[in-house]
Write a structure and sequence with these properties.
Helix content: 55-70%
Bound molecules: zinc ion
Distance between the termini: 48 Å
Number of domains: 2
Largest sheet: 2 strands, antiparallel
Mean pLDDT: 83
Low-confidence stretches: 1-6, 354-363
Order of helices and strands: HEEHHHHHHHHHHHHHHH
Strand order of the largest sheet: 1-2
Strand content: under 5%
Number of strands: 2
Radius of gyration: 23 Å
Amino acid sequence: MDFIRTPYYEGRDPNLKEPYCFACRFYENRIVFSDFIRCSRCHMAWYCSTQCQKKHDKRHRERCNLMMAEWYSVEQSIVPLQDSDVLSDDSAVVQRYFEANDNILSAEVGEYLCDLTSLATVFWHSAYECEIKQVWEAALFHCEKVIKVRAGYNLEARVRIPFILLYLNRDDEAYAYIRYWFEEGIHGRSRPYPIEPNCRYFDIFEENSTADMGNLQLPLFVALAIIKMRIIASHNAISRSIDIAFEQADMKQILEVRSDLQDFLLDCDIDVLDQSLRLNRIFEEIEREEPFLLDSMLKAEQFSEIRDFSFLDEALISALPSLKLVLLHSVRCFFRVPRASDLLWNFIIGNDRFEDVNNDEAA
Ligand SMILES: [Zn+2]
Ligand SMILES: [Zn+2]
């Protein structure tokens, strides 16, 4: 039987995990889900026993100390803002605060946002390493806090958000977020962005957005490409599974209902060819924004599953200087979509750029 070769892909990152024992994974290379003990300081490390916690303590301590130091900085920098409207949950109140202050970012607010961004970054690194849902959510929470106070404050928090949402398999929200920035442009103000179910199938180019997004544009296009690739890959996987099942079943009556079944399973409102065309358009936009980014991403695939972020950081930056932040955020997510590298290759070859890639390799 051939069922083992049946492709299986649901359009999600299967590596998103519930908390597991950090020590068992690190020392025995197995993942244990159990009643945990959590690190009492950072709450972002889980263990199946006190022995495991002890064993892992030396390794965890550095990350834990860093996290606590960032927490402490945020707690300090929030003090002078305690009674200020800048921390309001209501974005209209925050907006009025800045208008009343001539839209100038005071030193205090700047420091708070800077510390908040650093804290989010530590969570990001942690989540990238352990891939635990709660840690990704913590990173998201702090990035969103930065945006809430001052959306235009820095690119880092804004760029991380769609990728965190993708690592969390919240593709509709990622799409809604991207669309929001396409409408608002780089200086957009924060407001809750409307999320419609299944909006990930929409076409960003039809949504009539002309805002200037500056440096934000490129990472958002990469995130958009991942959303479309997931749709196409899951559609193809289901479709191929149905074919294989029918080839092997060899039952005439069932063959008659084949197309009905296919429609049912594939949700035929989705035009996969149309989604592919949209993906191609997105690749073209990336290419226009930063020529050879896609080639560099192909080269980066080899780094994409490395857990230790500090190495990844250095390796990528030295090997691929032009890629900057965006690649660090997205390569793993990107290449976990089945046939992602084939899709990229096809685009690059189709774009008549094959010669250039070879020259680049030789240089
Ligand atoms: Zn353990
Ligand atoms: Zn800790």
